[in-house]
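Reviewer has doubts. Consider these tokens.
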Amino acid sequence: MRIVFATAELSPVATVGGLAAAAAGLTSELRRQGVDVEILLPDYGDVELADEAWVPLDVPEWASPAGIRVGTHPVCGRLHLVSVPGMARPHPYLQPDGTGWPDNDARFFAFARAVASWVQMSHPEVVHLNDWHTGAALAALVDGPPTILSIHNLAYQGNAPAWWLSRLGPRAEHFEWFGGTNPLSGAIALADRIVAVSPNYVGEILTPEGGFGLDGALRSRADDLLGVLNGIDTDVWDPATDPHIARTFDADRLEDKAANRTALCDRLGLADDGIPVATVVTRLTHQKGIDLLEPLVPVLDQVPVRLAVLGSGDAELAGRLHVAASEHSHSFVFVEGYDEALSHLMFAGADLYLMPSRFEPCGLTQMQAMRYGAVPVVTAVGGLVDTVPDVDEHPRTGRGVVARRPDPVELCAALFRASRRVGDRRRATTLRRRGMGVDWSWKQPAGEYLALYADLAPAG
């Protein structure tokens, strides 16, 4: 079976958020299961491919010149890097000042049109699109192969001016949205199947609260909407082999996790005094709810817990976190930026892992944390509901602690419960082993997608 898989991000070539990890993990596992996956990714520049060939694409004048560099990447394998005007930039979406490139609509509409051109040339059995960046391809595909749209985050929709409707293609009328152009709403209308990245997220996006204006469009396609929980790369995130941590361990050698806690405390300047250590590895955005932690910092000693945050994003929020860390340095640490090695150590050394998300379509870091024996403390949203049963509500199957709402009071109460739980060595060991014992890999999700492809693909 040959699948065209179009995405704006793919780890490690172009990584901004969870889309990159999801695209890389799913396509890698699909290939492992024998699927011929052609990954179409924007050519952001400075990516070297072995055995490279150039394929020109026939696109309208507004999207030209366009073409594809086809070759082999040392990590991702076979790649199709799509070149369109203005695509090559140092960051896929953002200018150095943190604002979006003013021509993002033109860049990604041209990318989507190039995807459609490749599909028309190559005749795959199924086309798998991801998020708004690729959705407009469906405006140009008439009588094409079956299509799937994966929604990784409904909050980002790529809204653009109405005049784009005259350019996108023969089915552009489906992309008109309240006097403008919405590539995600059009893709929802036209895709043969729509996949949300966790079962619980399906229910959320059908509501006015979680639908970001598209809940009505999604309800009209409810029969074609399903949820498939993402996985993680269990080769990269494996405490038994991880080169970034102080001492490797597994569920049968949990005593060796303590060496990583000591190393983490030394790295962050925290006392390794038996008080539970909670970590957060995140983007600093409204979605992730990191601002909700600020009121908690002054009361961490009363919980008690030490808290460390690694993240980048909103500059104003980062500034406030730096101030909080300077005022409460014995209990709170903030490291701005992203450090791959430190992120691994923050999972391996943590007693608890905190996710105060306001919404979370799937979430990956709670699964990574559980893989490393860190007990998750999460809010009751999206994929966090699907992956973290509350241990007090489900004593025999619980894997963590759930705050009912994303607010400081609920988060403080959840941290208090979690701190008490991991303070009991026997109960903590049971809880850690439950999380470590789950298969968080892409094997099952890829199997669900493969079944969906087979259901859609033409017979023969």
In short: The longest strand covers residues 277-284.
